[in-house]
Write a structure and sequence with these properties.
The chain is an alpha/beta fold. It has 2 domains: 139 residues, 3-Layer(aba) Sandwich (Rossmann fold); 105 residues, Dihydrodipicolinate Reductase, domain 2. It contains 7 helices and 12 strands. A 7-stranded parallel beta sheet has the order 3-2-1-4-5-6-12, with helices on both faces. The chain is elongated and about 60 Å long.
Length: 253
C-alpha cells in the first residue's frame, strides 16, 4: 500500500485529491498538512506543522502555496521521502531550491499535472519548429476568479517549451495595454483571463498570413490534476534521487 502525505489537504485541490485517492486500491492518504487543520473533517490526521506528522509516509503530494516550500523540502530531505510538487507560482530561486533538493531525494515537478496539457506541449514544440518563421505565436490562458498567480504556471511552461525550441530567441510580452507600436517578430504574447469558475483553458495560437492554427486544452474538472498527481506519485515511489517531470512519465508509457 502506497502511503501518501497530502500537503495542502484542505484546499480545493487537496480535497479533490483526497477523494480520488480513496478510489485507489493500492494507495491511501495517511496524513495531511494544512494551515487550517480543523477547517474540514478528514479521515486522516491533519497537522498544521509538517514536522509534527507521525505517520510513515512513502510519497508527499503537494498542492499548497510557494510560501511553504522551504519547510516541505526540509522535511522531505530529513525523512528521505520523494515529493510530487504540483504547486505553482514559484520564483526562480524556489525552482533552484527544488532542483538542489532533487540531488538527494526524488522530486517530480510539473506546473500542470494534466496528461493532456503535457501532450499539448509536445504538439506545440512540433508546430513551433515548422511554423515559427512565418507565424506569430500568442498564448491565452483562462482561469477562475480566485486564482492568485497570473499568468498561470502552465502558460509559462508552454512559453518556455516554445522558446527553448527557438534557442530562447523570443521575448515574452504580457498583454498590450497602452502599447502604441506594431507587434514585433520576436514576441510571444501571453494573456490572462480571470472569471467565474473556469477550471483552466490554455490556447496556443499560430497566426500567419491567411491561416491560423490553434492548439487548445480545456480542463472541465480538477479531477484531471488529481489523476495526474496520483500517476506521478506511483511513478516516483522508490525512484533514485533526481528531478522528474511529465516527460519522464509520458515517455515511460
Amino acid at each position: 500500500m502506497l502511503k501518501i502525505l497530502l500537503n495542502g489537504c484542505n484546499g480545493k485541490m487537496g480535497q479533490v485529491l483526497a477523494d480520488e485517492i480513496k478510489a485507489q486500491e493500492n494507495m491511501e492518504a495517511v496524513a495531511g498538512v494544512d494551515r487550517h487543520p480543523d477547517k474540514i473533517t478528514n479521515i486522516f490526521p491533519v497537522y498544521e506543522d509538517i514536522f509534527k506528522c507521525k505517520e510513515k509516509v512513502d510519497v508527499i503530494i503537494d498542492f499548497s502555496n510557494p510560501y511553504y516550500l522551504t519547510g516541505l523540502l526540509d522535511y522531505a530531505l530529513e525523512k528521505n521521502i520523494g515529493v510530487v510538487i504540483a504547486t505553482t507560482g514559484f520564483t526562480n530561486q524556489d525552482l533552484e531550491n527544488i532542483k538542489t533538493a532533487s540531488k538527494k531525494i526524488p522530486i517530480f515537478f510539473s506546473a500542470n499535472m494534466s496528461l493532456g496539457i503535457n501532450v499539448l506541449n509536445s504538439l506545440v514544440k512540433k508546430a513551433t519548429k515548422v511554423l515559427h518563421e512565418s507565424f506569430d505565436i500568442e498564448i491565452i490562458e483562462k482561469h477562475h476568479k480566485h486564482k492568485l498567480d497570473s499568468p498561470s504556471g502552465t502558460a509559462y511552461m508552454i512559453a518556455k517549451e516554445i522558446n527553448e525550441e527557438l534557442n530562447n530567441s523570443k521575448e515574452y510580452v504580457f498583454g498590450r495595454y497602452g502599447t502604441k507600436e506594431k507587434r514585433r517578430e520576436e514576441e510571444i504574447g501571453i494573456h490572462s483571463i480571470r472569471g467565474g469558475s473556469i477550471v483552466g483553458e490554455h490556447s496556443v495560437i499560430y497566426a500567419g498570413d491567411d491561416e491560423v492554427l490553434e492548439v487548445k486544452h480545456i480542463a472541465s474538472s480538477k479531477k484531471i490534476f488529481a489523476a495526474g498527481s496520483i500517476k506521478a506519485a506511483k511513478f516516483l515511489y522508490k525512484k533514485e534521487p533526481g528531478f522528474y517531470n511529465m516527460d519522464d512519465l509520458i515517455n515511460l508509457n
